[in-house]
From TrEMBL:
UniProtKB keywords: Cobalt, Cytoplasm, Magnesium, Metal-binding, NAD, NADP, Oxidoreductase, Pyridoxine biosynthesis, Zinc
One annotated GO molecular function: zinc ion binding
The keyword Repeat appears for this protein: no
Name of this chain's protein: 4-hydroxythreonine-4-phosphate dehydrogenase
Cofactor requirement: Zn(2+); Mg(2+); Co(2+)
Native species: Halomonas nitroreducens
Cellular location(s): Cytoplasm
């Protein structure tokens, strides 16, 4: 009999919606047919109790000692790996004193995955600017932090709509399936062109191909690759990255056996005819790919970090400071992120 995987859920920026989304998830009955798993929140128990009270949701918080097994899942009960806040927190009000708290929750969860306490990591949103303003120069996001913490050279950010999570369901009638991976992640636009190198594209596409097989059960991935420039460079008249970098790299990788379309003009790639039969799209930069994905499935999509030695998923949204503490944020993406992490853990995680 398979044991239900334990997932560590970091509750993210304490002034954002993360803590209350964790409360919502813990107090709602799982959807029929939902994957079997046990969630352990990583954060300040008093903060979670406060948000549960504000939402009027009774919640029993069970503080776990290191390596203590969480109890069986039960709506209204939330096991916690406790990490204390550094300063009192009001919803919607950022405080640089809590930046180290956010990073400590992540470190605790990473340690838990490495030590076999958890089979995967799910992250609620953090606020990048407050971490930078607290003095963590160079901080870019969870994705890059996990890359460095795990000591790997490259990771790939991919967001997927929940249709993609049910690829095996032939009667699905929901949003179109879409998986969008990024060649570059949190970079100012003026640095993107220099970052699109043959070396980076090669690493990213190899990881994407391998992890679609490993985590998503895609036997022979077909990946559509965007150009960088309008009309994929218009034959070199609107930029030469397609001719000099992207196309030659794709040609080399095809010889390795990867199935790659492109480079294709990004404006028409995201249309049903071009997406038919495609398992993932590789966009060259953040706002080339993610607006399309979020238009198709905001609130029903998850963010996955590929290329790590551990399972990591996240929500498709940020800290939503404007909604924090009001109980109005949609927990849909967090539910998808948790279900996907459980699925990935079953396919090949650690614990
Ligand atoms: N996974 C993550 O950690 C993650 C993801 C995206 C953004 N961020 C960070 O979050 C911070 C704020 O970013 P932003 O303002 O660009 O994006 P945001 O997603 O926080 O907010 C954008 C809009 O979406 C709405 N929204 C967000 N989540 C929602 C939810 N669950 N239900 C209903 N509406 C929701 C907000 O109210 C807002 O109107 C930034 O620091 C950003 O870097 C973190
Ligand atoms: N780029 C992501 C998004 O727009 O949803 C987001 O900022 C998350 O990044 P990390 O998971 O790296 O924090």
């Amino acid at each position: 009999m398979s044991v239900s995987p334990v997932l560590a859920l970091t509750t993210g920026e304490p002034a954002g919606v993360g803590p209350e989304l964790a409360v919502m998830l813990a107090t709602e009955a799982p959807a029929a047919g939902a994957a079997d798993h046990r969630v352990v929140a990583v954060g300040d128990p008093d903060l979670l109790a406060e948000r549960a009270a504000a939402l009027g949701r009774p919640l029993e918080l069970v503080e776990l000692a290191p390596h203590e097994a969480p109890p069986a899942p039960c709506p209204g009960r939330l096991p916690v790996w406790p990490v204390p806040l550094r300063a009192p927190c009001r919803p919607g009000v950022l405080d640089t004193r809590n930046a180290d708290y956010v990073l400590e929750t992540l470190d605790r969860a990473i340690r838990g995955c490495r030590d076999g306490e958890a089979a995967g990591l799910v992250t609620a949103p953090l606020h990048k600017a407050v971490i930078l303003e607290a003095g963590h120069a160079g901080f870019r996001g969870h994705t890059e932090y996990l890359r460095d913490a795990c000591g790997v050279d490259e990771v790939v950010m991919m967001l997927a709509t929940d249709r993609a999570l049910h690829a095996e369901a032939p009667d699905w009638r929901g949003d179109p399936a879409l998986r969008v991976a990024l060649a570059t992640t949190h970079l100012p636009l003026r640095e993107v062109s220099d970052a699109v190198t043959p070396e980076r594209l090669t690493r990213v596409l190899r990881i994407l191909d391998a992890d679609l097989r490993r985590w998503f059960g895609v036997a022979a991935p077909r990946i559509a690759v965007c150009g960088l420039n309008p009309h994929a460079g218009e034959g070199g008249h609107l930029g030469r990255e397609e001719l000099e970098v992207i196309a030659p790299t794709l040609a080399r990788l095809r010889q390795e056996g990867l199935t790659l379309d492109g480079p294709l003009p990004a404006d028409t790639l995201f249309t049903p005819r071009h997406l038919a039969g495609v398992d993932a799209v590789l966009a060259m930069y953040h706002d080339q790919g993610l607006p399309v994905l979020k238009y198709a499935g905001f609130g029903r999509a998850a963010n996955i970090t590929l290329g790590l030695p551990l399972v990591r998923t996240s929500v498709d949204h940020g800290t939503a400071l404007d909604l924090a503490g009001r109980g109005e944020a949609d927990p849909g993406s967090l539910a998808v992120a948790v279900a996907l992490a459980a699925d990935m853990a079953r396919r090949g995680g650690h614990a």
